[in-house]
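Students often ask what a holo structure prediction actually looks like on paper. The answer is less mysterious than it sounds. You provide the chain, you provide the ligand, and the output is a string of discrete structure tokens encoding the 3D arrangement of the protein together with GMT.
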Amino acid sequence: MKIAIVCYPTFGGSGVVATELGIALANRGHEVHFVTYRQPVRLGQLNNKIYFHEVNVPEYPLFKYQPYELALSSKLVDTVKLHGIELLHVHYAIPHAYAGYMAKQMLAEENIHIPMITTLHGTDITLVGKHPFYKPAVTFSINNSDVVTSVSESLKQQTLDLFDIKKEIEVIPNFIDTTKYSNSFTDCQRSLMAEENERIVTHISNFRKVKRIPDVIRVFHKIQEQIPAKLVLVGEGPEKEGAEKLCEQLGISDRVIFLGNSNEIDRILCFSDLFLLPSETESFGLAALEAMINRVPVISSNTGGIPEVNEQGISGFLSEVGDIEEMAVNALKILSDDVILEKFKENAVKSARKFDILNVLPLYEEVYEKAYASRLNKTYS
Ligand code: GMT
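The corresponding structure tokens follow.
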């Protein structure tokens, strides 16, 4: 099938999921066309199965805000016509589902009928989408998608609670390509990060408020009071400066390593002993799943879809949002004993394997086939 994927090209989870899905679909023989404003960060070499089409938004002095949706929908129309695209899969409702719907309508005028799948990822519903300024447009574009999927049961429920949804929402969880990890690194270069006797605690995110970065630092502060440890912080975002200041205030700057954005996530997780994800809300927690497949147990909050990924007392521990005390106690339970740590590491991989791409990809293919087969029965009003 010829599929156009619309996503954010950045380090955020929805872009990563869209990119990994596109790569996996191409490996299965589909032709995949990414349509976005920059080549997605996780997308490697383009080939005859993977294409990238850049959306350009020309500047004009009249505009305070550049009309990205307009440029995206035009690009989609051109791409569909030029490459004979059969299906549109948009990741993150805002503004992709809206632009996708407009593209569909324009194409229908020319008697080209193309189904649109919208995958909801999290903040497009829970933080941004529910804002009254966006809500009517988000509700409209979800209800006018041919198929709607969400990355967790929790996100499905939140969508139904927050919006007036008239469509069925199918849950297709995020996934991991487990074959990539069967020969995981043997040389993790751990010595570059920490002394032999130190545990390595890691957090990876885009450093937005929702990630509760101060909680990450305060939990680590308590851990390092009890055992020798280093904290590795990976990512960039608005909370980073405050994080650096907090480390200084707590007198732990020499134990905290800020790595910035990285394409070497697996290498970093390879030498990590524990992953912290104390988020305010998290539709799924892809970062936790990536940690787990790399043998890293997770201390997280119990919010949103995280309990569908991190298993209490098995792959790690979950606490109420903001319960720094309990998170630190649980972290120490795992880190203080080599045997316990090893058990949690093994369990983390086992839990992660449930999200093997081989189980999840067919769910998307099934949805695509159904949507494609029924495209001509639709009335494009
Ligand atoms: O929160 C992020 O890190 C980015 C955000 C995104 O949309 O790019 O992530 C959301 O989608 C991910 C992939 O489906 C989920 O794993 C994250 O849990 C979700 N983030 C939130 O709900 C806060």
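The CA atoms of residues 191 and 315 lie 25 Å apart.
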